[in-house]
Amino acid sequence: GYAALKKRLNGVRVDLHQVAQANENLTGNGSYRNMSVAELEVLETTLEGGLAKIREAMRQQYRDVVEGERDTCVVCLHEKVSIVLLPCRHRVLCATCAVRVHQCPVDRMDITDRFSTFGM
């Protein structure tokens, strides 16, 4: 009846408060001074795990482009690769980014010339 629903509602409110607190902690908006050492250690582990996943995803995207598994610009990660850089001959930039970049993003060699490529 009514008492059971009220009890359930209070439980949901407690759960919501805990989720909101955890979200504040994860986004950096929480008050760390009021947390216990154990809570801070759990938060640190969670954040380090998330950061490791982000770093690995970034490394994998870069590897995919460099290894030719994808045909996406390594600078903007949006446009298709269409420029060969000289003298190194790396093909990792779109036309828009190639104009703005003065060193090859792969080997950091100074770019002396660029030419467009056309693919399927």
From TrEMBL:
Residues 73-108 form the RING-type domain. One of its GO terms (biological process) is negative regulation of cell growth. One of its GO terms (molecular function) is zinc ion binding. Pfam families: zf-C3HC4_3 (PF13920). Keywords: Metal-binding, Zinc, Zinc-finger. It comes from the Eukaryota. PANTHER family: CELL GROWTH REGULATOR WITH RING FINGER DOMAIN PROTEIN 1 (PTHR15379). This is RING-type domain-containing protein. The lineage of its organism: Eukaryota, Sar, Stramenopiles, Oomycota, Saprolegniomycetes.
